[in-house]
C-alpha cells in the first residue's frame, strides 16, 4: 500500500509543479522511476523546428517503406518541409498546380498514420 501512496503523492506534487494538471501524465520509466509527460499540446504551440523535423521523418519513413513514391516524397519535402509554394513547385517541375495538389493529397493520406507514431524530444 505504501508504494502506491508514495506514487500518488509524487504524481500530485509533479502535477502541481508543472502548473497544468490537465496535460500532465505520470509515466513509469525503465529504471523504476517516474517522469511527468506533457501531452496534447496544441501543434501551434510547438517549436517550428520540431514540427518540421516530424514532417521530414514521416516523409522519409513513407518513402522508405514504399507508401509513397520518391517523386511524391520530393514534392512533399519541398512544400511541407521547405515551405516552397505549390505554384513554384509546379513551375519547377513543368506541371500544373492541380497535379501537384493531387500528389500532396496522396501523401497526406499516407502520412497521417505515420505521424501518429513519431516521437521527438521537445524542449517544452
How would you characterize the overall build of this protein?
With 124 residues, the protein is mainly alpha-helical. The chain folds into 2 domains: 2-40, no CATH class; 45-115, Arc Repressor Mutant, subunit A (Orthogonal Bundle), CATH 1.10.10.2690. The protein has helices at 2-18, 48-64, 70-81, 86-93, 97-115, and strands at residues 24-28, 34-38. A two-stranded antiparallel ribbon has the order 1-2. Strand 1 and strand 2 (34-38) form a beta hairpin.
CATH topology title of the largest domain: Arc Repressor Mutant, subunit A
Which parts are unreliable, with pLDDT below 50 for 5 consecutive residues or more? Answer: none
- As a percent range, the share of strand residues is 5-15%
- Order of neighbouring strands in the sheet with most strands: 1-2
**How would a crystallographer describe the biggest sheet?**
2 strands, antiparallel
CATH first level of the largest domain: which class? Answer: Mainly Alpha
Number of helices: 5
Distance, first to last CA:
34 Å
Amino acid at each position: 500500500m505504501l508504494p502506491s501512496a508514495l506514487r500518488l503523492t509524487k504524481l500530485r506534487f509533479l502535477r502541481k509543479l508543472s502548473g497544468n494538471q490537465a496535460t500532465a501524465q505520470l509515466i513509469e520509466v525503465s529504471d523504476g522511476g517516474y517522469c511527468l509527460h506533457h501531452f496534447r499540446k496544441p501543434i501551434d504551440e510547438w517549436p517550428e523546428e520540431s514540427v518540421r523535423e516530424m514532417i521530414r521523418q514521416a516523409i522519409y519513413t513513407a518513402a522508405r517503406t514504399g507508401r509513397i513514391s520518391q517523386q511524391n516524397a520530393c514534392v512533399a519535402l519541398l512544400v511541407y518541409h521547405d515551405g516552397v509554394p505549390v505554384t513554384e513547385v509546379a513551375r519547377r517541375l513543368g506541371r500544373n498546380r492541380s497535379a501537384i495538389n493531387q500528389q500532396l493529397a496522396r501523401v497526406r493520406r499516407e502520412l497521417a498514420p505515420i505521424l501518429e507514431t513519431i516521437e521527438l524530444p521537445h524542449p517544452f
